[in-house]
Amino acid sequence: MTYLFLRFIFLKSPRIGFRICLGEKCIGEEKMICVAVDTTSEKLLLALIKGDETHCRAQYVGKSGHSALLMPAVKQLLDENGVSPRDLDAVAVNVGPGSFTGIRIGVSAMTALSFAANAKRISLTTFEIIAYNRGQTLAAVDAGHGNVYAAQCLDGRVISTAFYEAGGGDDVAGAVYEPLGDGAETLAAVVKDKAQRGEYVSVFEPFYMRKSQAEREAE
Q: Please, what's the b/e burial string for 178-205 (b: 16 or more CB within 10 A of its CB; e: otherwise)?
């Protein structure tokens, strides 16, 4: 029985070569296939990592376009590169901070895709994308109405986070709000690093940092 299962894994994944897997798919090999999405802003960022290849895409969708455009864009990216959902070894999503609605859409969609593909999950944050390839950095995200989400980062890793209300300009002086390079390419780079380090999660947990405006007004 074990022999038949291992033979099935080998035949199903010739792109990776010989490997022994018991249970979930093996991750961390050079030929990993992973799709990553970022729905935290008015841009939809997509990245497909296919072994040594990386295919990236960025599309402006506005404040309410993620719900209708995310999965068709993912499907198109996979189709264009000859990948089906069952080929995916991992899926990744930016869990925030950023747009509350965008985060919910991205997390829900990638959770469903990971179950459908029996794929591992890689979680990353907006702060990690901004801080990538930087040393000591104060990464910041516009929280609306003059408020700011911020994180002290070192070598791309988040050390601490804080929420600053409007008027706290001195607290975020010198903060950076954008990644060094292209957003989608940086998304892919962070995901690759996490995969190589074996940083996987069992559940995608949204990283809001505070309650939504509707929730605050209801209190």
A: ebeeebbbbbbbbbbebbeeeebeeebe
